[in-house]
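# step 3/5: fold
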Amino acid sequence: MSRWLLLISVLALGATTLLAQEMTVELDPARTRIEFTVTATAHTVHGTFALKSGTVHFNSSTGSASGLVIVDATSGDSGNRGRDHKMHQEVLESQRYPEITFTPMRMSGRVDPQGASRVQIDGIFKLHGTDHPITLTLTVQAQGQNLSVQTHIIVPYVAWGLKNPSTFILHVGEKVDIDINAAGRVQQ
């Protein structure tokens, strides 16, 4: 009898370890906020983008990661119609490139099942039809099956080949700061 109890305990411990190593996270677009900030002459422009969908698979024991996070490029909104029109027509060309994506490839660190963790994810950030390798540093807060994730990205959009909307009078910064606060659930 004690051998069976020992065997069941070992199997349960192995299953718990396996679950802790492999995870799939589904991001919730309704509970995810993507904010951008760009400097301009005499003021700073703030705005948002909407998450379309996001699924990330990772294995903390091997460091492998996969999945796809999709942001709706056409949703970019700074609160100024003229500025947004120029952003969509001349800079993002969002009718031609309606999605901004991130494809995770590798993860460093471990997500604790309860509490705060810090991990890095290497992947490909696709903007304006072009792939750019990037490393994201994520602060993860786990509570049961629920996760929240925060990260900050600096996108050198001009260096990445997008048009700078500056004019003779108005100067716009060549980098965009992006803050992401995402929420999701761990899927079994």
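# step 4/5: annotate
Residues 22-187 form a domain with the Lipocalin fold (CATH 2.40.128.110).
# step 5/5: archive (pending)
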